[in-house]
């Protein structure tokens, strides 16, 4: 698509927003209901697209994509009316007699740029929140997941007029063209590298952004953990979608005394959960397959390691005796490789993690409450779990987002509504009384009264 066409769509969306048609809360809710109906009608086509792009089974597609979207839709349909009400706040005595409130107002024309790893959920979830808040939306799904991008366009074109929601298909050319334009808000999910570029482009227009990025999310297992249960939950979180999950445990940091037991249990869990590799999925493309394959060190593989470039499959793999200097520890893996590092002193383990860029997620398997408190209070990271992995993002009751190098801002549920909303602070001053103490000339009495009111 040419830049001129993109500019025309943006202008049509701006005109639509300025008409006030998105301000009606009941209208927003009706569109969300229609979106839910169409998604339910097209569930089979969504599953087929996700299978073609990533090899996802229908069960995984519903659990991790369609079902999550439907849950967010249900939540916002129930709560948007409440979220959109003005919120009254206390008025200071010095402003007597007046009322004060915050008025939630949409930003305007929003750009949502989504990735390929969970292409349906990570496109539609922020769209839901942006629509609930009263914005128009331009959606740019990933070119790496073309089948899912196509069904997204089909669904959104079915539900919304193009001046309300538009889908821009294409690759880098379209991405660059979009980022040259002025939007009222940009929501980007992707790598920290591209996140820097998005933020740089947005800064030209002083456009606010939410950046959902990534990083190397640690999974700590201490000697007090339930090792068998930890192994089961780690295998689930690590190898789901072949590790192509932004919050997947990137590496395992385990106490030396329980390392061998953990590796044994992880191997047993891999065999149990992935005995049928036909439902295992695939790496998104050759580029990422080659990148992940280069991280494999044959001398450190203790399980798995087989690759097939023709089918884009890489076995669930465990690498032991890994050091911080190894290639696998120099970048986010985003694949089915589990590096094992060890520690003997818990405080040293935490201090090392704190020296690294802030991760999107952190997981701790421990029954020691003091250690749990230490991690949750002192380590900077986006979010995480105690004695589990990745499930913290599967709720509309808490925001999901990163911090530092892993992103800024959050969304889901009420926080998603707030992300796409500007809250105007309004003071409604009454006209029947006008206290003169703020007006010049000031007197000693007025000065005394001001000191009483403002303290």
From TrEMBL:
Q: Which GO terms describe its biological process?
A: aldehyde metabolic process
Q: What residue stretches are annotated with the Aldehyde dehydrogenase domain?
A: 3-426
UniProt keyword Nucleotide-binding present: no
Q: Does the keyword Transport apply?
A: no
Instruction: Read off the PANTHER family from this record.
Output: ALDEHYDE DEHYDROGENASE, ALDEHYDE DEHYDROGENASE TYPE III, ISOFORM Q
Q: Which family does it belong to?
A: Belongs to the aldehyde dehydrogenase family.
* Name of the featured protein: Aldehyde dehydrogenase
């Amino acid at each position: 698509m040419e830049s001129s066409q993109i500019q025309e769509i943006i202008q049509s969306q701006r005109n639509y927003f300025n008409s006030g048609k998105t301000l009606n809360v009941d209208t927003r809710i009706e569109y969300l209901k229609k979106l839910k109906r169409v998604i339910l009608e097209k569930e089979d086509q969504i599953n087929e697209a996700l299978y073609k792009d990533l090899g996802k089974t229908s069960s995984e597609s519903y659990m991790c994509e369609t079902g999550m979207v439907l849950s967010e839709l249900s939540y916002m349909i129930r709560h948007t009316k409440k979220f959109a009400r003005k919120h009254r706040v206390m008025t200071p005595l010095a402003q007597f007699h007046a009322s004060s409130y915050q008025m939630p107002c949409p930003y305007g024309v929003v750009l949502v740029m989504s990735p390929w790893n969970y292409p349906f959920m990570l496109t539609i979830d922020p769209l839901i929140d942006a629509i609930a808040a009263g914005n128009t939306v331009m959606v740019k799904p990933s070119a790496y997941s073309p089948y899912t991008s196509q069904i997204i366009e089909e669904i959104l074109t079915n539900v919304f007029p193009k001046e309300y929601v538009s889908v821009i298909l294409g690759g880098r050319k379209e991405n660059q063209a979009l980022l040259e334009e002025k939007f009222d808000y940009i929501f980007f999910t992707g790598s920290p590298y591209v996140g820097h570029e998005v933020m740089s482009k947005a800064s030209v227009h002083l456009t606010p952004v939410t950046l959902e990025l990534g990083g190397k999310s640690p999974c700590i297992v201490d000697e007090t953990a339930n090792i068998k249960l930890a192994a089961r939950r780690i295998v689930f979180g690590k190898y789901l979608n072949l590790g192509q999950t932004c919050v997947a445990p990137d590496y395992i940091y385990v106490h030396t005394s329980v390392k061998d037991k953990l590796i044994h249990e992880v191997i047993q869990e891999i065999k149990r959960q992935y005995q049928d590799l036909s439902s295992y999925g695939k790496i998104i493309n050759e580029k990422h397959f080659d990148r992940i394959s280069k991280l494999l060190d044959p001398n450190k593989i203790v399980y798995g390691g087989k690759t097939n470039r023709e089918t884009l499959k890489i076995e669930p793999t465990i690498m032991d005796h890994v050091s911080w200097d190894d290639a696998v520890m120099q970048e986010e893996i985003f694949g089915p490789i589990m590096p094992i590092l060890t520690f003997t002193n818990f405080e040293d383990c935490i201090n090392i993690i704190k020296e690294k860029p802030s991760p999107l997620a952190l997981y701790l398997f421990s029954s020691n409450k003091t250690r749990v408190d230490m991690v949750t209070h002192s380590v900077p990271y986006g979010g995480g779990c105690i004695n589990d992995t990745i499930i913290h993002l599967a709720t509309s009751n808490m925001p999901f987002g990163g911090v530092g190098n892993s992103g800024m801002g959050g969304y889901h549920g009420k926080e998603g509504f707030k992300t796409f909303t500007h809250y105007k602070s309004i003071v409604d001053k009454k006209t029947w009384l006008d206290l003169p103490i703020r007006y010049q000339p000031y007197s000693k009495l007025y000065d005394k009264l001001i000191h009483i009111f403002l303290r």
